Amino acid sequence: MATAKHPDTDMLHAAEGARVGARPLTTPIYATSTFVFENAAEIEAYQRGGQASYLYTRYSNPNIDAVETKIALLERGDAALLTSSGMAAVATALFGLLKAGDEIVCSSAIYGGTLHLIVDYLKGFGVAARFASLEELATPGCLLGAKTKALWFESPINPTLRCVDIAAVAKACRAAGVVSIIDNTFASPINQQPLTMGVDLVMHSATKYLNGHSDVTAGALVGSKAIIDRLHAARKLFGGVLEPASAYALSRGMKTLGVRVARQNASAMRVADWLSRRAGIAQVFYPGLPSHPDHAIAAKQMKGFGGMVTFDVAGGYEPACRVFDRLGVVQRAASLGGVESICSLPVLTSQYGFSDAQLAAAGVTRGMIRLSVGLEDADDLIADLDQAIG
């Protein structure tokens, strides 16, 4: 893009011209809030969409564009939209697609932040919400009415790791003219690509596996160009765009996504298998175990079973707290998907504030511990769990 004439910039451009062919391997950080135009005609061309350029970082930025291209390719989508957090992506999608008088059908078993956004805020804007059990999602066509405009679900589900037949949900939604939206955070695009199964829109908390280093908060939406174009205005007006330095860090983290997830898949399988045979554990939730109620569904639609393992400590909340407090290698923290193994008590984090009825609907117990398996040696993780369980 042309810039205003200034001695310093003229010198810089001359230096750049002297190194023709010297291109950066990585996208530099464009640490600017705004971009300079040469004249009114350039701005008019930009506003008319006739010039590929940038105006203001809240609208877009080269770092943001670079990450959006990568995520769209990973999910086999036409386009992506990067946001400042996973919840910013949820809000952008729901407020961008729904209006007063519409209805959203939502899985009862979802991330707590999504549930609270729908119940506490979306309903206040005149959008009706209907929550469906896993059994009801098995026959999704029966859930969709004349006012239903979107169906939101997860697979695997946080924190029970139950799985939903993605293709069946997508097919029913397409037949009814309903937008299907899946939170694909737990699987990552390495293990699962819902767009190839007919889903309309994929959401990620990019804070988790996409970044993978617990140092960036970000979100993403991926889909067809038509649906992403509908959401651009919502992101622009809500202001939930990611800033350039974080976009750069996210891009760097994504370079190791494939090797990280492969290691996490393998270690989580070993940990889950060990826990399933350990005394003091009432139940283990991991899609890769043949004992998992949705193992057949997971095997059909996932390339790997993921790095998340949830287990129910015998005796309930107090014994679970004792195990939780004694862990040493595994750290106690919210979030997931990073290189370090961390664990949480869902009733104190993702499902905090849920009523007993809401917990039951989500399949969450007070004795659950959710483990995000990192890159440590699996034997070290098993030894740590062993001593913590006691």
Characterization of the model:
The chain is an alpha/beta fold and 390 residues long. It has three domains: 1-56, no CATH class; 57-254, Type I PLP-dependent aspartate aminotransferase-like (Major domain) (Aspartate Aminotransferase, domain 2), CATH 3.40.640; 257-389, Alpha-Beta Complex (Aspartate Aminotransferase, domain 1). Helices cover 40% and strands 15% of the residues. It has 15 helices and twelve strands. The chain has helices at 7-18, 40-47, 62-74, 86-97, 112-121, 134-137, 166-176, 188-191, 225-238, 244-254, 257-276, 295-301, 317-326, 356-362, 378-389, and strands spanning 79-83, 103-107, 128-132, 148-154, 179-183, 201-204, 219-223, 281-285, 308-313, 331-332, 342-344, 368-372. It has a seven-stranded mixed sheet with strand order 1-7-6-5-4-2-3, sandwiched between helices. Strand 2 (103-107), helix 5 (112-121) and strand 3 form a beta-alpha-beta unit. The longest helix has 20 residues, at 257-276. It is globular. Residues 1-18 have low confidence and may be disordered.
Short description:
The protein has 390 residues and is an alpha/beta fold. The chain has helices spanning 7-18, 40-47, 62-74, 86-97, 112-121, 134-137, 166-176, 188-191, 225-238, 244-254, 257-276, 295-301, 317-326, 356-362, 378-389, and strands at 79-83, 103-107, 128-132, 148-154, 179-183, 201-204, 219-223, 281-285, 308-313, 331-332, 342-344, 368-372. It is 40% helix and 15% strand.
